[in-house]
């Protein structure tokens, strides 16, 4: 029973990943494909409420209130945290807090830490742990080799100009 | 020599009176005169007054750290973060984040810094940087990312904070210069360590200037693209932040960064004129990582039973 509560929580989080409420940040076109030269499906006006379904490259797949599906430039969207999914998400990111403050003594309370303002306030600097980072150091060659397995190669892209 | 001091003094006065361009501040930074000498000159040529102290402060603010000082500062600041939350001691996961992070850092102007990347073992969602090459990401954030280009975007943002000395400059403004110099010279270690720890807690709790965050977003996107990733990893993470309620696990992130919708708008402007290559979005090694950082569902007790209620604050649309 309790395990199924946990499973339900995870499912809720997973379901939430499929459609997220969003709004159109500035007037733009809904395209049939994630490309500038794709055919227009509809005009989208600023502030229009839509559902965000996912991203492809620089494009977001969305569904309009009229039920039309298509693509919009990813950076032409805004989002607002919806209240309905708040408890599910809180379950994940504050998992540690719950375990730490859990009323049941069987819940593990050791080794779960946070980096909230309060945690930082109470923190005692741990220089030894900084030293422990040396265990996981990789060499430049190892990083390059691993990047190759991920099909990464350096691109000749100029960094943006420094703002005056 | 004397001429140089006088020029420095003139530039410093101009800095103080607020009528100076960045170029002139750089000129002050680039003179080979150390701040002790400038302070001496101030003492010699200026009558005692409030202006005198302000001028000395302006000189402090333009002092350039040595790489050694910056590393020392970063080590002490990292000790504070790791004091709040230890490393996630899974060697495979930690090495993976170092591989991705170093690969991106190799595409910057400072590939030879002793770059160190670490996973903080906390479900809270955040990422941090410290001067001299330290970058941290929380286990909670890793779990929320969808692909490796998103991780690249987060790390490239933090790497930019290091490259552009954002935290070092902020700590300087908070008065850390003498404390760090003392630590490097190994003078009154414990007092200086404690003082620096408190300055670091203050900075991590209140965050950098918003302009530094926008700078890290803008440069982070281009840096990730230089490393061969899709440029849209970071924007995708910002979408996730923007659509996530501000529960306790994300409180510090939201308190220390501009509104995610405003960050998306700024990137829309910044990325407008560049035609980015498609780039790599994901890799098999990222999927393995996500398995490694997963929290096990407790066998007997469901933590879902009592999620802590936190005050919800409304995000204003940008
Ligand atoms: Zn930042």
Automatic annotation (TrEMBL), chain A:
InterPro entries, sorted: SH3-like_bac-type
Domain annotation SH3b: ranges: 30-73
Superkingdom per UniProt: Bacteria
Record keyword Signal present: yes
Ranges where the record places region Disordered: 142-164
Residues in the signal sequence: 1-19
Keyword Zinc: no
Keywords: Signal
Official protein name in the record: Ligand-binding protein SH3
Lineage start: Bacteria, Pseudomonadati, Pseudomonadota, Betaproteobacteria, Nitrosomonadales
Automatic annotation (TrEMBL), chain B:
PROSITE patterns named among the record's database cross-references: PROKAR_LIPOPROTEIN (PS51257)
Peptidase M48 domain ranges (all copies): 91-269
One Gene Ontology term from the biological process aspect of the record: proteolysis involved in protein catabolic process
Annotated region described as Disordered, given as residue ranges: 297-318
Signal peptide residue numbers: 1-24
PANTHER family the record matches: METALLOENDOPEPTIDASE OMA1, METALLOENDOPEPTIDASE OMA1, MITOCHONDRIAL
Pfam families: Peptidase_M48
Free-text cofactor note: Binds 1 zinc ion per subunit.
Protein name: Peptidase
Family: Belongs to the peptidase M48 family.
A molecular function (GO) term: metal ion binding
GO cellular component: membrane
Comp. bias (Low complexity): 297-307
């Amino acid at each position: 029973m309790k395990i199924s509560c946990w499973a339900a929580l995870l499912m809720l989080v997973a379901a939430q990943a499929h459609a997220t409420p969003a709004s159109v940040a500035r007037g733009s076109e809904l395209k049939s494909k994630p490309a500038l030269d794709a055919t227009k499906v509809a005009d989208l006006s600023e502030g229009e409420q839509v559902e965000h379904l996912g991203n492809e490259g620089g494009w977001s797949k969305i569904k309009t209130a009229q039920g039309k599906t298509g693509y919009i430039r990813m950076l032409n969207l805004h989002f607002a945290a919806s209240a309905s999914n708040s408890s599910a998400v809180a379950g994940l990111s504050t998992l540690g807090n719950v375990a730490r403050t859990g009323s049941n003594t069987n819940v593990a309370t050791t080794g779960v830490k946070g980096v909230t303002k309060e945690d930082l306030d109470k923190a005692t600097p741990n220089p030894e742990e900084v030293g422990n980072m040396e265990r996981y150091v990789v060499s430049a060659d190892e990083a390059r080799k691993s990047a190759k397995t991920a099909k990464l190669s350096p691109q000749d892209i100029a960094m943006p100009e420094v703002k005056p | 020599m004397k001429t140089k001091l006088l020029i420095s003094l003139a530039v410093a006065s101009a800095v103080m009176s607020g009528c100076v361009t960045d170029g002139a501040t750089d000129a002050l930074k680039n003179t080979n005169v150390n701040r002790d000498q400038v302070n001496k000159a101030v003492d010699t040529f200026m009558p005692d007054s409030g202006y005198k102290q302000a001028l000395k402060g302006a000189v402090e603010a333009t002092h350039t750290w040595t790489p050694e000082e910056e590393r020392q500062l970063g080590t002490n600041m990292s000790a504070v973060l790791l004091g709040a939350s230890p490393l996630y001691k899974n060697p495979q996961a930690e090495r993976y984040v170092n591989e991705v992070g170093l690969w991106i850092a190799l595409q910057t102007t400072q590939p030879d810094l002793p770059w160190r990347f670490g996973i903080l073992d906390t479900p809270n969602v955040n990422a941090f940087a410290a001067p001299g090459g330290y970058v941290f990401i929380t286990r909670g954030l890793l779990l929320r990312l969808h692909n490796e280009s998103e991780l690249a975007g987060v790390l490239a943002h933090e790497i930019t904070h290091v490259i552009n000395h954002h935290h070092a400059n902020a700590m300087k403004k908070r008065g850390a210069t003498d404390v760090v110099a003392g630590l490097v010279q190994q003078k009154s270690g414990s007092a200086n360590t404690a003082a620096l720890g408190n300055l670091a807690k203050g900075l991590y709790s209140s965050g950098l200037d918003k302009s530094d965050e926008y700078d890290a977003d803008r440069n982070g996107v281009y840096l990730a693209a230089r490393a061969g990733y899709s440029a849209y990893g970071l924007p995708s993470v910002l979408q996730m932040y923007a659509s996530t309620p501000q529960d306790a696990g994300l409180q510090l992130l939201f308190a220390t960064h501009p509104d995610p919708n405003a960050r998306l708008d700024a990137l829309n402007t910044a990325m407008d004129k560049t035609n980015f290559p498609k780039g790599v979005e994901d890799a098999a090694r990222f999927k393995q990582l996500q398995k490694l950082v997963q929290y096990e569902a407790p066998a007997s007790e469901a933590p879902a039973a009592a999620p802590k209620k936190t005050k919800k604050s409304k995000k204003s649309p940008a």
